[in-house]
């Protein structure tokens, strides 16, 4: 009993310190919601370039192959209900509408729920093209569902959000950083500083300023060591407060911004930048609130126009008052009003909030345990139960060591006219390696997918890749491909040395 006052006093001192570090400024949630909407739109636009190839039955992973490889995951995908282009395109449009609503803060909760459901469905349709950025985007959107995302674009509410989901939002990136640091330190390439030089010697990966930066090996060595040190310091994102926390956030933001202009890793750096927004302290938001709101007022007209377009589109789809769709909408509105009236009861609303906190807490525990399993500290669940192991979902980012080879694909198609063409890029297949287009991939999705094709050893997956290339070419050209020879070429990634190109494999498929 004599110790009780001391524990009470200690708890009273610790509680404000935890609240200060594990709560999120509500203005950060508005900015995060707008960033998520913009990222979802950008992701859809980038994926749309290979919509038929990656998400339809005429592409590289038809529904039959998806079910055979991922029987449980396939059931989560609305995109897999039909295999035609029109269905996937319709869902892309629906996801774009939800992302626009999320961006401008129109019916925010509904927009966030629809965005998450369609994003999970899209990811489940083709897990072979996913990367760490997809996982972080999906998880960040999930945590956001439990939080007050506000409406519109203006920053008004200066309060703090204290919720288990806010803790999850803050701990999720740190868990990824720490896991990545541990994996990197298990090898010798990153601690020695060689890793970044190896990464920038991969021509098919470097873009923009990365091509110039590759010529400065000493700079790359320093950047590699600094990045590992920064990853090890990632817990400071929550342990630090005030201006020191802002400095830590700026350090991580600078690193991700550098990745975006030097490496072709898709939207991952931009998703990481968005995930850093909740760490910014109130003082940082005080300084950006006024200029942000000026821009928000100017964008309000665009948001109003978008909202009007969405309403008109809904009316056009509904048609006349006698149309079946309008009757369905009317019934839906009646039931929604009943639910709103029910939720309006304080007891039910309190129960819903309590359930949300409980669910967010359970998810937080799962995240920690899952990532501990990814490092081997906890026994991982059987892949027969969940299909995907923790090791597959962890953020490796060239860890414990970057690739030792620069690999690219050459698909030489023989047309019905007898002509030979490069089926992936078009043009003459007899191109020199010195031409960067020869080793480039159409997108970061293609590189990720072809890594799986190469290392999985699945002959059926390789055959579907070849058939998908044939269908892709035949859909846009008058002369069709009769046969296709896929060559896998590689070159060792050794800085300051020119290594010969090697032919790893070559297989011919009939179209």
TrEMBL record:
Q: Where are the transmembrane segments?
A: 28-46, 85-104, 167-183, 219-240, 247-280
Topology with regard to the membrane?
Multi-pass membrane protein
Q: Name its cellular compartments.
A: Endomembrane system
Under InterPro entries, the record lists:
HTTM-like, Sporulation_signal_mat
Q: Please indicate which superkingdom the organism of origin belongs to.
A: Archaea
Assigned GO CC terms:
endomembrane system
The answer to whether the entry has keyword Transmembrane helix is yes
* Keyword annotations: Membrane, Transmembrane, Transmembrane helix
Please list the residue ranges annotated as the HTTM-like domain.
21-284
Grouped into one coarse class, the protein's main location is: membrane
Region Disordered, as annotated, extends over 492-511
This chain belongs to the protein called: HTTM domain-containing protein
Q: Which organism is it from?
A: Halobaculum halobium
């Amino acid at each position: 009993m004599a110790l009780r006052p001391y524990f009470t006093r200690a708890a009273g001192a610790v509680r404000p310190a935890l609240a200060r570090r594990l709560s999120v400024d509500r203005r950060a949630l508005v900015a995060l919601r707008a960033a998520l909407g913009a990222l979802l739109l950008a992701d859809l636009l980038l994926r749309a370039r290979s919509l038929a190839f990656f998400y339809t039955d005429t592409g590289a992973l038809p529904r039959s192959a998806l079910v055979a490889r991922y029987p449980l995951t396939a059931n989560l995908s609305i995109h897999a209900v039909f295999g035609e282009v029109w269905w996937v395109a319709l869902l892309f449009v629906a996801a774009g509408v939800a992302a626009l609503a999320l961006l401008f803060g129109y019916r925010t909760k509904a927009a966030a729920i629809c965005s998450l459901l369609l994003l999970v469905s899209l990811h489940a349709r083709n897990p072979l093209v996913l990367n760490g950025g997809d996982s972080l985007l999906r998880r960040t959107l999930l945590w956001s569902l439990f939080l007050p995302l506000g409406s519109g674009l203006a920053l008004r509410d200066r309060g703090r959000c204290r919720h288990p989901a806010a803790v999850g939002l803050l701990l999720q990136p740190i868990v990824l950083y720490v896991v990545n640091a541990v994996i990197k330190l298990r090898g010798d390439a990153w601690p020695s500083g060689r890793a970044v030089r190896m990464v920038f010697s991969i021509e098919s990966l470097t873009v923009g300023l990365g091509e110039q930066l590759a010529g400065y090996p000493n700079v790359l060595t320093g950047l590699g060591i600094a990045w590992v040190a920064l990853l090890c310091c990632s817990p400071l994102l929550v342990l630090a407060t005030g201006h020191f926390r802002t400095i830590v956030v700026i350090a991580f933001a600078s690193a991700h911004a550098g990745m975006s202009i030097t490496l072709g890793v898709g939207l991952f750096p931009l998703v990481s930048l968005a995930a850093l927004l909740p760490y910014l302290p109130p003082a940082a938001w005080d300084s950006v609130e006024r200029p942000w709101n000026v821009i928000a007022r100017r964008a309000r007209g665009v948001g109003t126009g978008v909202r009007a377009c969405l309403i008109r589109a809904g009316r056009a789809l509904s048609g006349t008052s006698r149309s079946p769709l309008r009757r369905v909408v009317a019934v839906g509105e009646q039931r929604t009003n009943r639910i709103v009236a029910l939720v309006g009861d304080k007891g039910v609303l309190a129960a819903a909030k309590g359930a949300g906190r409980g669910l967010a807490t359970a998810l937080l525990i799962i995240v920690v345990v899952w990532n501990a399993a990814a490092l081997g500290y906890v026994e991982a669940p059987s892949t027969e139960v969940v299909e995907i192991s923790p090791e597959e979902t962890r953020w490796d980012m060239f860890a414990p060591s970057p690739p030792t080879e620069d690999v690219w694909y050459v698909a030489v198609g023989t047309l019905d006219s007898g002509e030979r063409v490069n089926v992936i890029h078009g043009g003459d297949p007899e191109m020199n390696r010195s031409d960067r287009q020869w080793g480039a991939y159409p997108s970061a999705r293609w590189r990720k997918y072809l890594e799986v094709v190469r290392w999985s050893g699945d002959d059926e997956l390789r055959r579907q890749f070849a058939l998908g290339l044939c269908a892709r070419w035949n859909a846009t050209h008058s002369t069709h491909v009769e046969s296709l020879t896929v060559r896998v070429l590689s070159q060792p990634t050794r800085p300051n040395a020119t290594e010969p190109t090697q032919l790893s494999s070559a297989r011919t498929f009939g179209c």
